[in-house]
């Protein structure tokens, strides 16, 4: 996690609420798309754990009011994620085609997408876990597809004492200390910081 990560969540509110009155704020989403597309081939979902405003919003705004129960495994299933990706991206392209390229109308499509997805993420964030939405978010799925095997967390099983501290802090609820590929790891490094035996590293 970067030093600025905790402060990025406010951008979600600025775009979602401010965008209703000033639709050009919606173009901020293009910056998000571009950033994660550049980073994902080299670091997988690193953007999600370090630079995504909604991820920061989940971790620092939703976490205090979240029930923090187990994220249903079905949320991570590609049988759910792929259709959600196609549906949301298709819906967005369809709406953009209807705008005839009018700048404010295109901006409002992005703002609407932001409001829609933020509403769902808040709902699941409170009812289940802060990062429940991030388990099936189309942008997370895209980053996983582009670089899920890159920049993997390394586990030194010789040092690990199975204390479970890493699992407790993992916002994605992953099996942190198991030696297996974790394509949905968001590279936040909270587990690395929490480990008392320095058994984890990138
Ligand atoms: S999964 Fe989506 S909302 Fe969550 S941090 Fe990644 S890009 Fe942001
Ligand atoms: S925190 Fe470190 S020692 Fe504890 S279970 Fe995780 S990897 Fe093992
Ligand atoms: S495994 Fe570690 S780095 Fe990856 S998401 Fe969980 S806490 Fe963050």
Detailed description of the structure:
- The protein is an all-alpha fold and 202 residues long.
- The chain has one domain (5-147).
- The chain is built from nine helices and two strands, in the order αααααααβααβ.
- The chain is elongated and about 60 Å long.
- The chain starts with 9 loop residues before the first helix and ends with a strand.
- The relative contact order is 0.18.
- The model has no long low-confidence stretch (mean pLDDT 96).
- The structure holds iron/sulfur cluster (3 copies).
- One iron/sulfur cluster binds next to helix 4 and helix 7.
Helix content: 40-55%
Shape: elongated
**Count of extended strands:** 2
How many whole angstroms does the radius of gyration measure? 17 Å
Our estimate of the beta-strand percent is under 5%
End-to-end C-alpha gap = 13 Å
H/E element string? HHHHHHHEHHE
Sheet with the most strands: spatial strand order: 1-2
Main β-sheet: number of strands, strand sense, barrel status?
A: 2 strands, antiparallel
Number of domains: 1
Number of helices: 9
Heteromolecules bound: iron/sulfur cluster
Q: Which regions are unreliable across 5 or more consecutive residues at pLDDT < 50?
A: none
- The computed structural class is mainly alpha
- Summed over residues and divided by their number, the pLDDT gives a mean of 96
């Amino acid at each position: 996690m970067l030093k600025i990560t905790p402060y990025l969540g406010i951008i979600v509110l600025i775009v979602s609420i401010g965008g209703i009155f000033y639709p050009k704020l919606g173009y901020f989403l293009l910056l998000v798309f571009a950033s994660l597309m550049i980073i994902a081939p080299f670091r997988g979902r690193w953007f999600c754990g370090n630079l995504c405003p909604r991820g920061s919003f989940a971790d620092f705004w939703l976490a205090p009011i979240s029930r923090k129960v187990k994220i249903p495994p079905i949320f991570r299933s590609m049988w759910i994620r792929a259709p959600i990706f196609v549906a949301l991206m298709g819906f967005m392209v369809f709406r953009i085609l209807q705008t005839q390229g009018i700048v404010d109308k295109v901006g409002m499509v992005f703002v609407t997408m932001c409001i829609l997805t933020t509403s769902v993420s808040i709902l699941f964030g409170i009812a289940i876990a802060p990062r429940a939405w991030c388990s099936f978010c189309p942008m997370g799925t895209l980053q996983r597809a582009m670089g899920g095997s890159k920049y993997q967390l390394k586990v030194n099983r010789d040092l690990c004492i199975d204390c479970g501290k890493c699992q407790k802090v993992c916002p994605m609820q992953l099996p942190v200390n198991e030696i297996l590929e974790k394509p949905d790891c968001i590279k936040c490094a909270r587990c690395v910081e929490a480990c008392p035996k320095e058994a984890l590293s990138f």
